[in-house]
Design a protein that fits this description.
14 strands, alpha/beta, TIM Barrel, three-stranded antiparallel beta sheet
Length: 442
């Protein structure tokens, strides 16, 4: 008796005007260019108007390898959930996002940390944090991100904590990075990180000088663009092996300037390990909802296509398989540490007292918040996500937003994958990249 086979829910049949009949599978990122007869047959099979047995054995075998046909409709979801559990409860690594201060020297209009009280880490809390790290005896790798506010306002704390880490013998520093606005990235700071290297540093430059200086400014509307570029020049000189990621936050106001700005900054740092990339501003704060001109999901794909066609900026359309949808908030050994030693599961919660899950000195724990993050709703528990044809290449959006909507009756966009609203268009772009990659190999 033959094993019953099923048409995968992650298949997408698409009639491209440029490339003809295409079949794409999101679980394996596999493409097939089909004849009209095969396209019609598969279309009928997908609608259960025809049976899989009408395919020849060789085709069935190929389709099984590429997960176009499956033996168990729930197999992918079970495997994804298992990988999620393995990663979420792995204690070999400790992940910390440490905010030595909640203060910031900028007044960006889209900031989701607005109206939070400025606090600074004391040397006593620094020692408590080091003891907390040392107490993880079964852990041998610390992945560390400096966060804020603006973390470099707390530079002295950063220096003391990194020196203290060198005395903890059983833990080695793994990933070490920092997002910063770059204004305080002085020569002293650059030289310090030459001796205490980071794996990467992220600095935000929001477009050309005239636009950046309207969005990322000091109190009093003082501009910051020139100072940031000057500081980055110095940092790159002293830290040539540290990758620099230049993040450009995009709204409809500045999205058209990305291509030009990318070319200008790429030329400025030509030959250096600098990557300029776009990031779409999200509606995390009420002020942004009223003041920000957010980019729609539909417009994002057109933006990426234009980057390739108009500016010849290489864009990777082929997605990576998202094996779990795991973020730090759902990892048992990941914590955001605030300047008073308070701990959170998500850095969007920093400074929100009711989201504190405990303290590095061992004080009481808030198990209500902790269990929501560790055992609460994920992409695998969302019926819309479970039925989605591109679930394997989607992280499920922001878990923090998912929780806000569920537990606080909010109506925030949790950044469902932009591909979903532009599936035919993005599949065609992915196919073009697949053809380019294949051609480059020969």
């Amino acid at each position: 008796m033959k094993t019953k086979l099923y048409w995968s829910q992650f298949n997408h049949l698409f009639n491209s005007k440029k490339y003809g009949h295409l079949l794409y599978n999101a679980e394996t990122n596999a493409f097939a260019n089909l004849s009209t007869n095969m396209f019609d047959l598969l279309n009928a099979i997908s609608k259960e108007e025809k049976v899989v047995d009408e395919l020849d054995d060789m085709t069935i075998e190929k389709f099984l390898q590429k997960k176009i046909l499956v033996k168990d409709k729930n197999d992918y979801l079970h495997r994804r959930r298992l990988r999620y559990y393995f990663q979420a409860f792995d204690t070999s690594n400790l992940g910390l996002a440490v905010a030595p201060t909640t203060a910031c020297n900028f007044i960006c209009p889209y900031c989701y940390e607005e109206n939070k009280v400025n606090k600074y880490m004391t040397e006593e809390v620094e020692q408590q944090l080091l003891s907390f790290i040392d107490g993880h005896k079964r852990t041998n790798i610390l992945n560390l991100t400096w966060y804020g506010g603006e973390p470099l306002i707390g530079f002295k704390s950063i220096q003391r904590i990194l020196e203290g880490l060198k005395k903890i013998n059983h833990i080695k520093l793994g990933l070490h990075n920092m997002p910063t606005n770059g204004y305080l990235l002085t020569k002293e700071v650059s030289l310090f990180f030459k001796e205490n290297p980071m794996n990467s540093i992220q600095v935000t430059i929001d477009g050309a000088k005239e636009h950046h200086d309207k969005l990322r400014m000091l109190p009093g509307n003082f501009p910051t663009f020139d100072k940031i570029v000057e500081n980055l020049d110095s940092f790159i000189e002293y830290n040539p092996k540290t990758p620099v990621f230049i993040r450009m936050n995009l709204l409809n106001d500045n999205i058209d300037s990305f291509g030009k700005t990318h070319k200008e900054l790429s030329s400025h740092w030509k030959g250096k390990d600098v990557l300029i990339y776009p990031a779409f501003v999200k509606d995390f704060s009420d002020s942004c909802k009223s003041n920000c001109n957010l980019v729609s999901r539909e417009d994002k794909i057109d933006f990426f296509r234009e980057l390739k066609e108009k500016y010849n900026i290489e864009v990777k359309f082929k997605p990576f398989n998202s094996s779990t949808g795991l973020c730090g908030a759902t990892h048992v050994n990941y914590f955001v540490v605030g300047p008073e030693g308070e701990m959170y599961k998500c850095w969007n919660d920093l400074g929100v007292s009711e989201k504190v899950i405990g303290y590095v000195d061992g004080r009481e724990k808030n198990y209500d918040v902790l269990t929501r993050y560790l055992a609460g709703p994920t992409i695998m528990d969302d019926n819309e996500c479970k039925d989605c044809s591109i679930m394997p290449i989607c992280t499920g959006g922001c878990l923090w937003v998912r929780h806000k909507n569920l537990y606080e009756n909010k109506d925030l966009d949790y950044s469902c994958c932009a591909r979903k609203n532009n599936l035919d268009k993005t599949i065609e772009l992915q196919y073009e990249e697949t053809l380019r990659t294949a051609k480059a190999k020969y």
